[in-house]
Structure formats: structure tokens, C-alpha cells
Amino acid sequence: MAPEVAGSYPSPQAVGNAPGPGFIGFVHRRRRGAELFLLVLALAVGVGGYAAVGLGVDQEVPADLVGYGGWLAALVVLAHVVVRFFAPYADPVLLPIVAALNGLGLAVIHRLDLAYEAAGKSQHDFAQQQLTWMTLGVVLFVLTIALLRDHRVLQRFTYTSGLGALALLLLPMLPGIGNTVNGARIWINVGPFSFQPGEVAKVLLVVMFAGYLVLHRDALALAGRRVLFIDLPRGRDLGPILAMWAVSLSILVVQRDLGSSLLFFGLFLVMLYVATERPGWLIVGGLMFFGGAGFLYWFSATTGRLSHIQNRVNIWLDPMAYYDKSPGSGQLVESMFGMSWGGLIGRGFGEGQPDRVPYAESDFIVGAIGEELGLTAVMAVILLYGLIVERALRAALISRDGFGKLVATGLAAVLALQVFVVIGGVTRLIPLTGLTTPFLSYGGSSLVANWVIIALLLRISDQARRPVPDLSGNDDSDGFGDDATQVVKLST
Q1: For the whole model, what pTM was predicted?
Q2: pLDDT tens for residues 79-97?
Q3: Residue 447 lies in a domain
Q4: How many structural domains does the chain have?
Q5: Which of 56, 159, 264, 481 can pair with 349 through a Cys bridge, CB separation 3.0 to 4.6 Å?
Q6: Per the domain annotation, does 411 fall within a domain?
Q7: Residue 285 included in any domain
Q8: Sequential DSSP letters for 53-113
Q9: pLDDT tens by residue, 434-467
Q10: Cα separation values, 137 from 156, 316, 326, 427, 483, Å
Q11: Structural domain contains residue 13
Q12: Which of 273, 289, 307 is the last residue of a domain?
């Protein structure tokens, strides 16, 4: 038999002499060394960006560079070690990409802190708070990897996850703890901390949708009427999508949150399409969402109620006309001016004025990157997000169980939709939504939830890439092969 090399396809002789059905033609390598090398490059992005901010703004290296870099390196190395021991076959690219994005985000937030301090603003410690939230996110990442040894365990909590997600979405509406920020009632106050429960709800919704669709996808995949070469779903199967449509529009109307409304409905629609392979669901869901949003805009324009919907659309269509009005488009227009000034390669750290954009550290951090690092950096960031989605979908493709496939697909859809609606709003492709850019923007609840998402993706990819154990039961060591037959005579 020709020798086998892990990570390579076997020779024809090896296939012909394979020891039974347990043989796997392709075995993934662990690739932890490649992950460590990529993490060094990711740390160079984060620590180098922090140093570049100090040189650009103060013309000197920050005094706390060693402490900051050491803390960031400790978090990254801790995550790597845990993955090496508890998920050795996990995807080697996901963690370095996330570390690079998080490090770049910390550097840009630090740049904004220095601008706020120079302008005399009271709060200019966002980077320090973000590093604290990153620490908590890495801790939860470690706990998820270490304690969740098999992602299929989550399928037992399908309806529990759905109930928990619903409770989290309703929390901001409770008096006393619910809080309205910038017109959207999506926050709760817990002591001195504010928290956005919808960030945790999106993870629970992925688990709930995956568990539900695994059990019911055969019924939902049945075709109804055929219209223009598209098999539409049966009317009796529209219950789940109608319920999710009602929930998403309720979020839009009651909580005034366009981003979460689009994210949750789009998530369910993508997972439903992947589970059933019926494009009719995409058509029906798209018509329902845009039809409902169009009706709400018409209702707002004719009655004067739900004015936040009309304002978002009007600002999107003609931002210059609302520049000096309230609510106005000053945030969007200033960001567009900054990105235009930055051009292809940017002004450089310390040479722009990203602090002119309100909430640049959270909603419009992509605009700050575009102003001082240019369109090139924005395209690099989008490429990194694309790689995260690609690796998540790769894990879904090679996953050996339907639940894992749907969970990985759902988590990929969450990240893809969130990046699309945020960057699309900043670049005026779609109306502004108010969501944060994953791993880049300031925001504790978003950062922590996204680290847990990466942990789940690594767990699924580890299970999918592990060699399948040989369960054929063949053992030729005793001299008896498959061709040997033993005859036993029973006396009567």
C-alpha cells in the first residue's frame, strides 16, 4: 500500500486496499501552526495601528504601548491555546481574522479618544472600555470552546432558545429597565451598565431556527403552485414565515429599530431557503418584507405617525436637504465628506477629522477608517468580513449533521447581513440602520456576542474536520479476514 499523507488525496492503490467503509479519502490537518503564524500578523495590525495613532497624533509612541500590546497578545494567545487543546481541527483562519479586526477597531477607537480629548469632551476612554469588553468576549469564547464539546447538544434547547430570544427582545419594552437611545428602544440598563439584549437574541434565534428547520424542512420543502418557473410554497406552510414577518415589523414599529428588523427576518429567510432549497421562499419573504416596509412608509407619510421611518428614508434619498435639520442627516453627510477627503489611501492617522461625525466610534467607524486610512483599508476590511463568511459557509458545507449545517449557515448569515446593513448605510446604499460593525465598532454587547459566534463556528468546523473513526469492526490481526467462514454444527 502506498503511504498516506494527512491532508492529501490517496493513491488508487490505497483506495483499492482501504480497510473497509471507515476509510476517509481526505483527512484535514490540524493547522494550528498556520493559525499561530496568522495570529502574529493579526497582532502586528492591532499593535502597529495603536503605535501609528500615537505617532500620527502626538508624534511619539504611546507610553502604554507595551502594556496594551502585552494584554492584547495575552488574550489572543489564550484563545489560540484553548483552540489548540479543545478544538485542534478547527478552522485556522477564523481566529486570526477576528483578532485583526478587533485590533484595528481598538486602534481607530483610540484615535477617536485622542480627538475627543483634544476637543474637551468629557468621555474619551472608549478604547479602554472596548478592551475590557474584548477581555470578557475572549473569556466567553474560551468557556464556549472548553465546555461545549459537541454543538449537537444545542439541538435539545431548540424551543428554550426561542423562548429566551423572545424574552430578550421584549426586555427593552419593560418600564424601569428599558432605555431609548437615539430614538431606538433596544437597550436595557442593569446597574451602571447598558446592554443590548438583541445581540444575544440573534445567537439564540439561530439555534432555534436550526433546530426547528431540521425537524420540519421536509414539510416546508413541499411545492405549491408554479409561477414563472418558480415553485411557490403551499399556503398551509406559511405560518412560520408569517410569524417571523410579524415579529420583524413589530421591532420596526415598536422599538424603532430598522437594522434588527431586517437582520432577524433576513436570517430566518436565508436559513429557510438553505434548509428547503426552494427559491420560492426567498420571493415570498422578500415581497412580504418590502411590502410591509412600503406600507409603513406610506402610513407614516400620510398620517404623520411612525415618523422615524419616513425620516430614515428621506435622509437616505436626499441627505443634503436635511443637513441642518432635526432629526437631520449631519452624521451621514459628515461621514461622506470625510470618506471623500480620505480618497484612495486616506489622510493618515491624526491628519483627518473623524470626530466631526457624531458617534463615529460606534455607528460610523467605517467612515473614520475611510477618512484616515482610505478606500483601500475599507476594501480590506470588507474582504476580511467576506473571508469570515466564506469560512463559516465552508464549515457548513463539510458538516456531517443537518443541525450543524444550519447553525453555521445562520451564523454566517448574521455576520453577512449585519456588515451589509451597516456599511450599506454608511455608504448610502440603503437607509441607516443603527447596527454596529462586528468586532470594529465600540459596543460591549455586540463584541461579546460576536466572540461567542466565532467560538460556535470553530466548534462546528472542528467536528466537521475531524477524521471519522473506523467503526467497521474489521480486525485482521487474528488471522481471520472477511473471506474466512466458520461453520458451527449444533447437535439436536
Answers
A1: 0.86
A2: 999 999 999 999 999 999 9
A3: no
A4: 2
A5: 56
A6: no
A7: yes
A8: HHHHHHSS--TTHHHHHHHHHHHHHHHHHHHHHH-TTS-SSHHHHHHHHHHHHHHHHHHHH
A9: 788 999 999 888 999 999 999 999 999 999 988 8
A10: 25, 34, 36, 29, 57
A11: yes
A12: 307
